[in-house]
Design brief:
The protein is of the alpha+beta class. It is built from six helices and seven strands; from the N terminus they run E-E-H-H-E-E-H-H-E-H-H-E-E. The protein is globular.
Length: about 150
C-alpha cells in the first residue's frame, strides 16, 4: 500500500524500494512517454487573445468558441480550457488508494505548473487550484487561471 507524507515530498511503497520513476519509464514506455510526462509536469503555456493556456489546448477555434460561451470573461475561458481532471486524462481504478495517488499527482502538478508559469510569464500571478474527489465528482481536478489584478489599496 502506498505511503504518503503530508508535504507530498515522499511517496513510497511499504516494504519495497523507493519509487523509481526511471524504472517505470524503462519498463512501461519509451522516450516519447518520458517527454509526454515531462510536458505534463512542465507544460508549455501560451497566451492567446488575453488568456494564458496550456499550449495543446490553445487551438484558435476552441479559444474563440469558449470566449463566446463565456461572454468574453477571460478568466472563465482560462478555467474552462485549462481544466484537467486527472481521472479523465488517465486510466484509473475506483479505489481509495488510487484516489490518494491521483491527489498526490495533482499536488505535484499544482506546484510544478506554478513554477513553469513563473518561468514563462515572469511578474504575472496565477492561481492553480486543486480540487479533490470530495469537491469535484470527476476526482482530483486542476483549474488554472490568471490571478485577478490587484486593485487600488483602500
Amino acid at each position: 500500500m502506498p505511503e504518503y507524507s503530508s508535504s507530498g515530498a515522499t511517496v513510497r511503497v511499504v516494504g519495497r524500494r523507493p519509487f523509481d520513476p526511471w524504472r517505470e519509464i524503462h519498463d512501461r514506455g519509451d522516450a516519447d512517454l518520458a517527454l509526454a510526462f515531462g510536458r505534463l509536469f512542465w507544460p508549455v503555456f501560451v497566451e492567446r487573445r488575453g488568456c494564458v493556456l496550456i499550449e495543446h489546448r490553445a487551438d484558435d477555434d476552441a479559444v474563440a468558441e469558449t470566449l463566446q460561451r463565456a461572454d468574453g470573461d477571460l478568466r472563465r475561458v482560462e478555467e474552462l480550457l485549462n481544466r484537467v481532471s486527472l481521472r479523465q486524462e488517465m486510466p484509473f481504478e475506483d479505489s481509495e488508494v488510487e484516489d490518494e495517488t491521483f491527489l498526490e499527482v495533482g499536488r505535484i502538478l499544482q506546484r510544478s505548473w506554478l513554477a513553469a508559469l513563473a518561468e514563462q510569464f515572469p511578474g504575472r500571478q496565477f492561481v492553480v487550484e486543486l480540487l479533490d474527489s470530495e469537491d469535484d465528482w470527476h476526482g482530483p481536478t486542476l483549474y488554472l487561471t490568471s490571478a485577478p489584478l490587484a486593485g487600488p489599496a483602500g
